[in-house]
Amino acid sequence: MKIKEFDRRIIFIFIALAVIIPLLLPLNIPIPVDKSMNNGVYRAYNLIDSLPSGSVILISFDFDPAAAPELLPMGQAMVAHAYSKDIGVITTALWPQGVRFAEEALLAHAHTYQKERWNDFVNLGYKAGGVVAIDNIVEDIKKTYPLDLYGKSTAEIPVLQPVNTNLEGVSLIITLSAGDPGVIGWVQIGRDRYGKKVIAGCTAVSAPAYRPYFNSGQLSGLLGGMAGAAEYEQLVNLPGTASSGMDAQSIAHLFIIIFIILGNIIYLVNRRKTVK
Amino acid sequence: MTVEFIGLWIAGFLTLAIFSFLYRDNVFYKIAEAVYVGISAGYIMVQSWHDVVIPNLLIPLKSGNWLYIIPAALSLFMLAQLIPKIRWISRISIAFVVGTGAGYGFVTYLKSNLFEQVHSAIYPLWSGNIWTSLGGVVLLIGTVTGIFYFFFSLEHKGVLRIGARVGMMFLMITFGASFGYTVMARISLLIGRIYFILHDWLQIVK
Amino acid sequence: MKRMIPLFITFASGFLIIMSFFIPHYPVGELTNIMKEWYMVVAVFAMILGILNLFKVNAHKLIKLKPGWWYALILISALIFMVIAGWIGGMEEGSWFDFLFKFVYTPLNATMFSLLAFFVASASFRAFRARNIDAGLLLIAAILVMLGRVPLGNLISSYLPLIQSWIMEFPNTAGQRAIMIGAALGVIATSLRIIIGIERSYLN
Description:
The structure holds 3 protein chains of 3 kinds.
Chain A: H1 8-24, H2 40-49, E1 56-62, H3 68-84, E2 88-93, H4 98-108, E3 121-126, H5 131-139, H6 141-144, E4 172-177, H7 183-191, E5 198-202, H8 207-215, E6 221-224, H9 225-235, H10 241-275
Chain B: H1 3-19, H2 27-62, H3 69-79, H4 90-120, H5 130-149, H6 158-201
Helix pairs in contact in B: 1-2, 1-6, 3-4, 5-6
Chain C: H1 4-22, H2 28-63, H3 69-89, H4 96-127, H5 133-148, H6 151-156, H7 159-195
C-alpha cells in the first residue's frame, strides 16, 4: 500500500467522528486533578484561593477567537473563583479581540455571585504595543487607561481605588495568552521588572515552551490548553465546556496515536519489501 | 425570529463554508475567507481606534496638551509609507518603533530569558527524593548539552560532538512533547467548533 | 540625512529605554514614560498602515478587474461595513459591530484554525516515521504526552500522567531552556546591532 496515494479525506472523516461521537454520547471519563505543587494548574488555583477577600487581581485576555475554546473556559473559571472569594477583577487585553472575551468571562457568573460592574469588576479594554503596553499598564494603569471600555473615568471606578502606580494593590497578574504579546511580556515586565506574581494560562501549543518560566519560579502557575482549563474547572467545581470536551479530546488523541502506529507499520512493511 | 437565531444560522453556515475546504478548495470557502480578512481588519481598526487612539491621543490633544502633537506626527508619518514620493518620512516612525522595541528586547531578554534561566539551571542535585533528584540531573545534562548543540562557533568534534549528540536527543524529546501538545491544541479548537455546531447552533447537545 | 535621522532616533530611543531600567525615576524614567505612551499610539498606526495596504492591494485588483476581483470586492465591502458598523453604530452589546464579531468574525477565525486538527492528523499518518533513534525518541515522547495529558491516559494506567508530567518537568524543560537561552542570545545580539546601527534592514 502506498501512503502517498492514500486519500487523506478518509483520515479527516475519522477525526471528525472521533470528536463528534463523544460529544453526542459522552463517556464521562473522570478528569483526574494532580494536587501536587509540580502541577501548574493546582499551583495557580492555590494562589488565587489563598488571597484574602477584598484583594484585586488583573486578568489580561491576550487571545482571539481561534484560542477561545482553550482559554475562555480558564478565564470564566478563574473569574468565578475570584468572585466566590470576593476578589475584585480588572481585565485588560493586549489583543483587540480579547476585549470581547473579557466581557464574556466577567459576565458569565456575575449574576450568580451578585457582582456589579465597577464595584467588583471592570473591563479596561485593549492596548496596542505589546511589551511596551504591559510596561505602561504596570507602571501606571490609570494613566494608561484614562477610561474603561464604557468610557467611565478610571479615577472614579471603585474597584480601581486601591490600585496605585507599579500595580500596587494588585495581588496577582494572570495572562490568558495565545502567543505574542502575552506570557513572555508579562513575565519580563510584570514579574521580572516590577516583582508581581504572574500566572499564565496558555494554548497547549505554547505550554511546553513556557515550562522553563514555571520551573524558575518566574511563573507562579501555568495552565496549558483545554486540559488545563478542565482541571481548573474541576478544582472550582464548575465543570464547563473544557470538561465536557475532554472525552472528545481523549478519543481524538487515541485516533491520532493509532494513525501514527499504522503509518509506521506500513512504512516498515514497505521498507522490508524494498530491501528484499 | 430573534437576532440571536439569525446570527447562529449565519455563524453555522460560515463554519460549514470553511470546513468545505477539507473536501476541496471551492467558491464558498473563498467567499468566507474574503469576508474573514475584511471583517478582521475592520475589527482591529475600530477597536484600536476606540481603545487607544481616542483615550491616549485625541482626548489629551483636545484638552490642549500640545506635547501629543509629537505622537500624532509620528503616527501620520507612519502612513507616509503608502505614498511613494514621501515614503522616507515613515522611516522616522519605524525607527522609533524599532529602536524602542530593541531597547526592550535587549534588557528583558538579558534579564528574564538569559540571566534568570541560567540562574535557575544551577541548583543542588540531591533533593531528598530519588526521582526528582534524577530529574534534576536530567534537567542539568539536558540544558548544558542542548546549549552545546546550538554552539556553532566551533566544529562539533570530540567532547563537543558527544555533548551535541546528547543535546540533540534531548531536543528530540522536547520536540516530541511539543508535537503532542500541538496535537492537543488543534483538537481542542476542533472540539470548540463541533461543540458550537452541536450545542449552540443545532442544539442537539445540552 | 534621510538615513542619519532615523538611525539617530533608533539609537536614542533604544538607549533611553535601556537606561530607564537603571534610572527609572527623573529624568530618564519621566522621559521614557512619555515615549512609552506615544509608542502605543504609533503601534496602532502601524496596524492601520497594514490595513490600508490591504485595502490598496485589493482596490487595485478590483479596479483592474484582475482574476478573483470579486473576492477583492467582498473583502473591501466587509472591511468598510465593519468599520462603519463600529464607528457609527457603536460597539456595545447588541450593536451591529458586536453582532458581526460574534456571528461572523468568531466562527470564521475559529474554524479557520480548527482545520489544522485535520491536517495534523493526516501528517501524523503520512509523515511521522521512526526512521532513526532521534525520530524514535520524538515519536515515543509525543505518544506518551498525548496519552498522559488526557483523562483516557489515566484510565489506561495511572502511571501515564506521571510519565507525562516527568517528561514535561525535566527533559522538556531542559530542551526548552536550551532553546530559550539560545534564542535570548540571538535577540540580545540583534537588539544591540539595531541600536548601534549595524543592522539597518528595517530602513529599506
